[in-house]
Amino acid sequence: MGGLSKCSSVGAAISFLKGCGLVETKGRGKYQVSLEKKDIDFNTIAEKRKKNLKKFYALVEFYKSKTCRFGTICEYFGDDSFNGKCGNCDNCEN
Fold first, then answer.
1. What is the tens place of the pLDDT at every residue in 15-70?
2. For the chain, first and last CA: distance in Å?
3. Which of 8, 36, 46, 66 is the most interior residue, by most CB within 10 Å?
4. Which residues have CB under 8 Å from 3's CB, separation 6+?
């Protein structure tokens, strides 16, 4: 399975295998592994990974931003009625 090489931890590997239908959770920290060969669509997995990375990088940009967090959230949800600084978030307090 070539996709496993992109896993950076045991948890990520288990999550990947669960997504492929090869591992089933039986309880906290207990898993059942199926050795049956499953059809794995690596293109779908790659697309999902790209979407998740895009969301992650957007979150990082939000974190690094020096603008008003309230204003950014309002803008994200389509509310353009707020202008300026809220005076309450970590960026406005400084």
1. 888 877 788 888 887 888 876 766 777 888 889 889 999 999 999 999 999 999 99
2. 50
3. 46
4. 16, 40, 42, 45
